[in-house]
Specification:
alpha/beta, five-stranded parallel beta sheet, globular, binds phosphoric acid mono(formamide)ester, binds norvaline, Asp/Orn_carbamoylTrfase, Ornithine carbamoyltransferase, OTCase_ArgI, EC 2.1.3.3, Asp_carbamoyltransf_Asp/Orn-bd
Length: 309
Amino acid sequence: EKQLKGKDFLAIEDFSSEEIDYLLDQAAKMKKDFLAGGASKPLEGKTLGMVFEKNSTRTRISFDVGMFQLGGHALMMNPTELQIGRGESIADTAKVFSEYLDGVMIRANSHEMVKEFADNASIPVINGLTDKVHPCQALADLLTIQEVKGKLAGLKLVYIGDGNNVAHSLLMAAAKMGIHTAIATPIGYEMDADIAKSIEKAAEQSGVTMTQLTDPILAAKEADILYTDVWVSMGDDEQTEQRLSDFEGFEINDELTSYAKSDYTFMHCLPAHRGQEVSASVIDGDQSVVFQQAGNRMHAQKALLAALL
Ligand code: CP
Ligand code: NVA
C-alpha cells in the first residue's frame, strides 16, 4: 500500500501484477464490507477533482459515489468552464489543482493531455479514459472475472471488435495476470502496434499466449470470456458509416458464442449497441455479467482511490 500512495494511475502497464493483485484484493474486501453495510471511511476530508472532456455515465457516477462512500468528496469540473477553456495551460492548471485537491480523475480526448497534467501535478492523477487506454475499466473487469470464474490465471479471454482503448487496457491487464488472450479485429482496426508489442511482452513474462487475428470464429474457440466494445468510440463519430460496414461479421451473437466454452461469460464495458457489436440475445442472456461489471467500477476504483490518495 505504501508504494502506491501518491502514484498516478495512467495505464495498466505502469503497475506490476503484485500491485494489481493487491488492488483487486482490497476491492473485494471493500465490496464485501459495503454489502454488509459496514464500510470504513479512509478518505475523510479528502477531495477528488473530476474533469471530463467526453461523455460518461459509469465513470462519473462510480467515482463520485465511491468518494462519498470513502468519506471524501468529489468535485465535478466542466473543462469548458475552467480557464483551460480560455487558454490557461495544462501545466498551470495542474499546479493550481494540486494546491486544493488530493487527487484528480481526468477523461481526456488525448492521452498526451493526461500525461502532461500528471507531469505537472503533485497529486495523484487517475486516467478515466483516453483515446489510448481505459485502465479503470480493466481493473473492474479483472475483479469481475475473479468473482465469476473464481480465478484469473489460466483462463482464455477473447476480445472481438475494435482494437481500441478498452482492448489495450484489458489485454494488458489480462496478460499481466496470466490470462491467455486472443483478439479478432477487422483489417485496419488492429490494436496500436507499440501497445500490442508491450502486451505481447507482458504475456511472455507471464507465460501466456496473446494472439491477434482477423477471424472472430477462430478467436472465439474455447473462450472462457467473450468481450466486446462499441465499434464507434467517442471521437470516431465521423467514421460511423464506414465502421458499421467494416465491422460486419464481428457481432457477438448466438452463432459466435457457440464456438466458446459452454460456460463462457459475456462482458462489455458499456454503453452497448444491440444489433451491432452484440446481439440482444447475448447481452441480455444469462451468461452476460455486464451490470455486475458496471457495478464493479465503483468497488475497484474505491480500492484505487484509497491506495493512491
Ligand atoms: N464504461 C465506461 O467507462 O462507461 P462511461 O463512458 O459511461 O463512463
Ligand atoms: N471505446 C469506448 C469506450 C467507452 C467507455 C470509447 O472510447 O468511446
